[in-house]
Design brief:
- The protein has 51 residues and is α+β, with helices and mostly antiparallel strands.
- Strand 1 and strand 2 form a beta hairpin.
- The strands form two sheets. The protein has a two-stranded antiparallel ribbon with strand order 1-2. A two-stranded antiparallel sheet has the order 3-4.
- The chain contains one helix and four strands, in the order E-E-E-E-H.
- It has one domain.
């Protein structure tokens, strides 16, 4: 989850997937941003290894 310029890792329960969209059953609230692609790059940036 994105909080300002920071990210928070948390479990998310997923439901139905249709190829473009994924249903989030729990773990996120309306309006929150979710990293679904490039999570490895977020992890590298957070560790300081991405520079």
């Amino acid at each position: 989850m994105k909080h300002g310029e920071a990210f928070e890792r948390r479990p998310v329960q997923l439901g139905i997937r249709d190829g473009e969209y994924v249903q989030a059953l729990s773990g996120v609230k309306p309006g929150e941003w979710v990293v679904s692609r490039g999570a490895y790059l977020v992890k590298l940036a957070a560790s300081g290894s991405g520079e």
